[in-house]
């Protein structure tokens, strides 16, 4: 075995420190998502927001606020980044403030939208 001067061997403490740093980074990416009457599932560039119907529901995701304004049949009105959008299931994504917003589903209990960063911006 060759010992290289100046390069200390890997230790359990160094490995633990690296693991903790990785966990801190992951937590930092998910911080900034908050919701009331809604649940979120976020990645780096997109979030799925599931709003509870019949309550004031909102979520802060990707640095913007998304609110459920109303739903009737398969048409939903949401507010994303301060702009109201009317969406229907199967409709092509609507662009607002550098985000693409789609309606993934509507039931009697919930409304599910997807908000993703627009790659062309």
Key phrases:
121 residues, alpha+beta, five-stranded antiparallel sheet, 10 strands, 16% helix, globular
General description of the model:
The protein has 121 residues and is an alpha+beta fold. It is 16% helix and 49% strand. The chain is built from one helix and ten strands. The chain has one helix at residues 12-30, and strands spanning 34-36, 38-42, 46-52, 58-61, 64-72, 75-80, 83-88, 94-96, 99-106, 110-117. A five-stranded antiparallel sheet has the order 1-4-5-6-7, with no helix packed on it. A five-stranded antiparallel sheet has the order 2-3-10-9-8, with no helix packed on it.
Write the layout of secondary structure elements.
Elements (H helix, E strand, L loop, with lengths): L11 H19 L3 E3 L1 E5 L3 E7 L5 E4 L2 E9 L2 E6 L2 E6 L5 E3 L2 E8 L3 E8 L4
Let me know the number of strands.
10
Q: Strands across the major sheet, in which order? A: 1-4-5-6-7
Q: What is the count of DSSP helices, taking H or I runs of 4+ residues?
A: 1
- Rg value: 21 Å
Low-confidence stretches: 19-32
Largest sheet properties? 5 strands, antiparallel
Order of helices and strands: HEEEEEEEEEE
Strand share of the residues? over 45%
| Arithmetic mean pLDDT | 80
Q: How helical, in percent, are the residues?
A: 10-25%
| Strand-pairing-aware structural class | alpha+beta
Distance between the termini: 53 Å
Overall shape: globular
